[in-house]
Amino acid sequence: MQELLQVTNITAGYGDGPAILDGASLTVEPGKVHCIIGPNGAGKSTLMKSICGMLKIRKGDVILKGKRLNGMRPDQILREGICFVPQERALFAKMTVRENLRMGGFILDGQKELYRRVDEILERFPMLKEKADQHAGTMSGGQQQTLAMARTLIIKPSIVMLDEPSLGLAPKVIQEMFDIMKMMSADGITVLLVEQNALMGLKNSDWGVVLDLGRTLFQGPAKDILADPRIRELYLGGKKAAA
Ligand SMILES: Nc1ncnc2c1ncn2[C@@H]1O[C@H](COP(=O)(O)OP(=O)(O)OP(=O)(O)O)[C@@H](O)[C@H]1O
Ligand SMILES: [Mg+2]
Asked: Model-level pTM?
């Protein structure tokens, strides 16, 4: 299958600081769920920030459907259909659920279409509809994460990037987040996620990427990564955890 997004050997860092990413590559196929795993400080969040234009890429390429994205601003990359939910979710705590959804569509022209899409999302997520006029900051962690993920749909994205969507959530709630990802994927939206619980992330994904020390060590079908004894030992907590 033709790749949707191709990240090739990128180098990136913060300001004039050292290269945090140096040789990070990624192949993203349409409609699939991709999971980036790797130890703390490996550069997983930095890779997501580089793809969405928040960080300047020094070397290498990010190509979306044949179009080079490096050098473009975050809002331009958003217009290309890549939506990023950072680890801290970036919600407006003092705004209502409905207002947060509207904010997600700031690149859209025409208020009528924006409002129509907000209603569409509220229909799709009954929990959000119920809390539409409640401040986002008053909701539970799982509800806020649901809002952050649902908000990406407002621009009808082709790729949604999620940085540790399960962080701080109870296991039952985490499964709900994976169910939303599966729903996105069934709708043809490509999901790229970073997951601290590598085992769980890979089990819920089609494709896996192992990043360490700023470079891609391996990428391939998630089931192959789960079955690889060396990767299991180094990144999945050893043999027991994978049983
Ligand atoms: N804003 C920043 N300025 C300078 N260095 C940073 C900044 N953010 C991250 N770094 C450094 O970049 C490296 C990679 O960090 P990054 O957050 O990308 O790792 P990560 O794989 O997402 O780790 P974690 O699992 O802890 O989230 C780390 O050494 C970190 O200290
Ligand atoms: Mg991170």
From this structure: 0.94
